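ok new one. same drill as before - structure tokens go in, u give me an amino acid for every spot. 127 of them this time. try not to just spam alanines like last time pls lmao
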């Protein structure tokens, strides 16, 4: 069965950290660019970060210097380490796989037909 499954979300205080995981099954994640997106209540979905098949990364300006994306090809999993979290980071976080291996601007694109989607994991930053 082909699927992406996110995990690692939760409630954290401002300034705290979380690590999200996106585990793939049924296909080899390394062949795809993997994008983390998020959607806050009442807001449009936005790209957060991308990692290409060869390991190059890209980030939204709002998370640069705070978030780090990485992949473990042996585990077929991509991670998003989120540090110095802010209340405005509160959202449902999704991972999605693109039918190409390069990021090439995916983070900034508002529309893209991703091949696979996860169901999302809630991240809440609040004191």
């Amino acid at each position: 069965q082909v699927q992406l499954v996110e995990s690692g979300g939760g409630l954290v205080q401002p300034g705290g950290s979380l690590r999200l995981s996106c585990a793939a099954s049924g296909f080899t994640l390394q062949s795809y660019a993997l994008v983390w997106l998020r959607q806050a209540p009442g807001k449009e979905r936005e790209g957060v970060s991308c990692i290409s098949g060869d390991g190059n990364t890209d980030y939204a300006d709002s998370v640069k210097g705070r978030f780090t994306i990485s992949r473990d090809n042996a585990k077929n999993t991509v991670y998003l380490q989120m540090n110095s979290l802010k209340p405005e980071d509160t959202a449902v976080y999704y991972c999605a796989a693109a039918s190409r291996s390069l990021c090439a601007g995916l983070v900034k694109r508002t529309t893209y037909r991703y091949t696979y989607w996860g169901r999302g994991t809630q991240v809440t930053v609040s004191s």
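The mean pLDDT is 96. and btw The CA atoms of residues 35 and 50 lie 4 Å apart.
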